[in-house]
Specification:
Rossmann fold; 2 domains; binds ligand GPQ; nine-stranded mixed sheet; 837 residues; six-stranded parallel sheet
Length: 837
């Protein structure tokens, strides 16, 4: 009975001795316990890596306590929950972030110290969790941190790829890809839930059956795979709330390949089982270009099916009526990648819960929201013939959704077939496709852009037709990044300085308080300490550069950084051409002029998609230019060029705090938002940038004088592109700026070697060939002016420091806390649910 149950609970609690303790002595005991019993090393001899493992398990235990309490509390209070669906999360390392969010960093550092270890060194032992490509994936990670910190009852869902984003190694200046088997050394940050499993089905046929006198479709699948949950606790800062990121791994089901078992082919059937596991094996490394591969589609459905079964099971535990679904469940589509969810929810409600199409559709339209991350019109498509074999029932559902949508449209806009064709979810043609963005827009109650500029383009270009139909759906949620990782974890010197001068650490939960730094703008002591912090970070970065590339760099030089995925639209090529121009200028200077030059260290880093040839050539060009310049004794410390290999989250944490200047060069109208710019801003690094994406809003906060702005504005880009095409035929050398032509000629003529290899790269910016779609030619002059302005500002260190302080002071709006609060209130309609202490 109840009394018996309570007596048992009380005995258990007394045995447990309360919650785990966080004083340094208790932590040491726990670390040693884990050394001995988890890592299975001797307490008397263990190395840095083993210390990391033991500390990680010690922290994990504390995370689990809070994670349990949070979920018990959510279960009890039954709030509306947000489910954040994303195929990519770039979490990076977890140790430092966890101890900071748990508020036990000093205690852990002291505990380690007394055991003869140093926290920083131990933390460096951890490898990155790189289950994503670039900005989109890191945004998901920042948003999880904010969701936990702001106490929202949210869950993240994703895939547990066994191989994350490839490791980039550079051989002879060329990128090579190596698998990232990140689970090789175990992963203490996940909890394997062998009992949380679901069957996911593929292939097969659809049949019609009679049920209670009505015709009903049933899907008879041909293959079954099992999804196993791996839970990753996400602790909030300054709260007990610890939410869950649930990642699915595929494993063979007992039902896999029944056929082969039955025909007695035992060996082959066992071997075939491994096919199941390949579903979640590897992350697709092609940032923003997914070209209808079956395995990718399988990954998407595997993810969608497992997540939705889990979500529906939880809903049904708490509620009996599906009418309540929109009040209790918000499903967020992080880009189009998870948008098969729409068809899957319809299938569950219609085929399994027998709600009837119209009722099901009504519910579905109230639970989904969608964020798009691209300015490009030509989005993700799924070939109909792939769907037909892999997910036959879903294809029928998609056709039916589209049929109803088209009928409704005809009533609204008449038989305007060209407009209907644009809006249709099904793309007709030689190859029929499902347009995932159209599907997501039609079915979501909210369509979000990631910056004001992005939203504007969505309304007027990308989704103009849809905006005409559903203006109320379109919203702007300017991206943000978490100051916990991007200042507190990665720049402890700046963290202490900010807290000292603001007299509080409250900015770690409320980034708007950073504006208070303006009160000390002209304080000489503040300036001195500010410069000191930057200097220490530059030293750390300089050591890393020397270790990675053998190049020694001067701390007096301006550290100029461009780190991000390599893309033509991000214009790393403009940067390299600028470097070559700088080199030419230096070569032509007399001794006197050289003395006045601001020395530069140009740092570039980023990965190219393995199949993106032009991007790979950009990487090679960077190395070829570096080799020439760095070995020119004439140049010395005045100019150094460094490529940082294998750029990832933990490299970013080292590079960003050490940068003086950072470059964000996308041709205006191409970068949906950009989030790297925000991270540099928060670290007091000045921006050299185009008026693109979120940079426009950064300017609203810090003013045009506080960064180095250049290039064509969005409205000018269209005109220039047209002009460019109208004088296509003749090469018109007079119209090509002299400096640009010279730099281009040097690369083309083999000044940096590899003449043939660089030919096609040069052609992208040449007329009659690639036609310079990204307008390097016309922006080059303006780019050089901005570079000159940066040099000039750097000479005046007082002015530079002021600009740097104003950058941090104006960065508050770019906290992902602001973004998430906005989503919670105006899109998801969820409330904080704070677990009591
Ligand atoms: N983004 Cl579509 C990606 O990182 N990968 C993608 O496949 C797509 C977009 C980025 C986008 O380029 C940036 O401008 C954004 O800041 C970022 O998503 C987050 O919204």
């Amino acid at each position: 009975g109840l009394g018996e149950h309570r007596a048992k609970a009380e005995r258990m609690y007394s045995l447990m001795d309360g919650f785990l303790k966080n004083d340094p002595i208790s932590l040491q005991k726990d670390i040693l316990h884990h050394v001995e019993y988890t890592v299975a090393r001797s307490r008397f001899s263990f190395d840095d890596f083993e210390a990391y493992q033991a500390l990680a398990h010690t922290v994990r235990d504390r995370l689990i306590e809070r994670w349990h309490d949070t979920h018990i509390y959510f279960k009890r209070t039954k709030p509306k929950r947000l489910y954040f669906l994303s195929l990519e999360f770039l979490m990076g390392r977890s140790l430092s972030n966890s101890v900071i969010n748990l508020g036990i960093e000093d205690q852990c550092a002291e505990a380690l110290n007394q055991l003869g270890f140093e926290f920083e060194v131990v933390a460096e032992q951890e490898g990155d969790a790189a289950l994503g490509n670039g900005g989109l994936a890191r945004l998901s990670a920042c948003q999880m941190d904010s969701l936990a910190t702001l106490d929202y009852p949210a869950w993240g869902y994703g895939l547990r790829y066994e191989y994350g984003l490839f490791r980039q190694i550079i051989v002879d200046g060329f990128q090579h890809e190596k698998p990232d088997y990140w689970l090789n050394f175990g992963n203490p940050w996940e909890i394997e839930r062998i009992h949380v499993t679901y069957e996911v089905k593929f292939y097969g046929t659809v049949e019609e059956v009679e049920m209670n006198g009505e015709k009903q479709k049933v899907w008879i699948p041909g293959e079954t795979v099992e999804a196993v949950a791996y839970d990753n606790p996400i602790p909030g800062y300054g709260t007990r709330n610890t939410i869950n990121l649930r990642l699915w791994a595929a494993k063979p089901s007992s039902k896999f390949d029944l056929e082969a078992y039955n025909t007695g082919d035992y060996i082959n059937s066992v071997v075939n089982r491994q096919k199941a596991e390949t579903i979640s094996n590897v992350l697709y490394p092609d940032d923003r270009s997914h070209q209808g591969k079956e395995l990718r589609l399988k990954q998407q459905y595997f993810f969608v099916s497992a997540s939705l079964q889990d979500i529906m099971r939880r809903f049904k535990e708490e509620h009996t009526n599906f009418d309540e679904l929109p009040e209790k469940v918000a499903l967020h589509l992080n880009d189009t990648h998870p948008s098969l969810s729409i068809a899957e929810v319809m299938r569950m409600l219609v085929d399994e819960e027998h709600l009837g199409w119209h009722k099901a559709w009504d519910i579905v339209c109230k639970i989904f929201s969608f964020t798009t991350h691209t300015m490009v019109t030509d989005g993700e498509k799924i070939p109909v013939d792939l769907l037909e074999s892999l997910l036959p029932r879903h294809l029928e559902i998609l056709y039916e959704i589209n049929f109803n949508f088209m009928e409704e449209l005809k009533k609204r806009i008449g038989l305007d077939y060209s407009r209907l064709a644009l809006l249709s979810i099904v793309e007709e043609g030689a190859m029929k496709n499902i347009r995932m963005a159209n599907l997501a827009i039609v079915c979501s109650h909210t369509v979000n852009g990631v910056s004001k500029l992005h939203l504007e383009k969505l309304k007027t270009k990308t989704f103009k037709e849809f905006y005409g139909l559903y203006p109320e759906k379109f919203q702007c949620k300017t991206n943000g990044v978490t100051q916990r990782r991007w200042i507190v974890v990665s720049n402890p010197g700046l963290r202490d300085l900010i807290s000292k001068w603001l007299g509080t650490e409250a900015w770690i939960r409320d980034a708007d308080l950073l504006s208070g730094l303006r009160d000390h703008l002209d304080n000489a002591d503040f300036h001195l300490e500010w410069k000191m912090v930057k200097k220490v970070n530059k030293m750390r970065l300089a050591e890393y550069i020397e270790a990675m590339s053998g190049v020694k760099v001067s701390l007096d030089a301006m550290f100029d950084v461009q780190v991000k995925r390599i893309h033509e639209y991000k214009r790393q090529l403009l940067n390299i051409f600028g470097i070559i121009h700088r080199y030419n200028c230096l070569k032509n200077m007399d001794k006197d002029s050289r003395r006045k030059v601001v020395p530069r260290v140009c740092i570039i880093g980023g990965k190219a998609a393995p199949g993106y040839e032009i991007a790979k050539k950009i990487i090679k060009l960077c190395h070829a230019v570096a080799e020439k310049i760095n070995n020119d004794t004439d140049i010395g410390d005045l100019l150094k060029v460094v490529f940082i290999p294998d750029y990832n989250v933990s490299v970013a944490e080292l590079v960003i705090p050490g940068a003086d200047l950072s470059q964000h060069l996308s041709t205006a109208g191409n970068e949906a938002s950009g989030t790297g710019n925000m991270k540099f801003l928060m670290n007091g690094c000045l921006l050299l940038a185009t008026a693109d994406g979120s940079t426009v809003e950064i300017i609203e906060e810090i003013g045009e004088d506080n960064l180095f702005l250049f290039g064509a504005k969005v409205h000018e880009v269209e005109k220039r592109r047209q002009k460019r095409l109208s004088n296509l035929a003749p090469l018109q050398p007079a119209k090509i700026p002299l400096h640009f032509a010279r730099v281009l000629r040097m690369v083309r003529d083999g000044y940096f070697g590899h003449k043939d290899y660089f030919k096609s790269l040069c052609e992208t910016v040449e007329f009659g060939f690639g036609n310079d779609y990204y307008l390097l030619t016309s922006d080059f002059g303006s780019y050089l002016e901005a570079q000159a302005a940066a040099d000039k500002a750097f000479v005046n260190q007082d002015k530079w420091t002021r600009m740097s302080i104003l950058s941090v002071a104006g960065s508050g709006r770019f906290s992902s806390d602001r973004t998430i609060q906005d989503y919670a209130e105006s899109t998801w309609k969820i409330n904080p649910c704070r677990c009591p202490l």
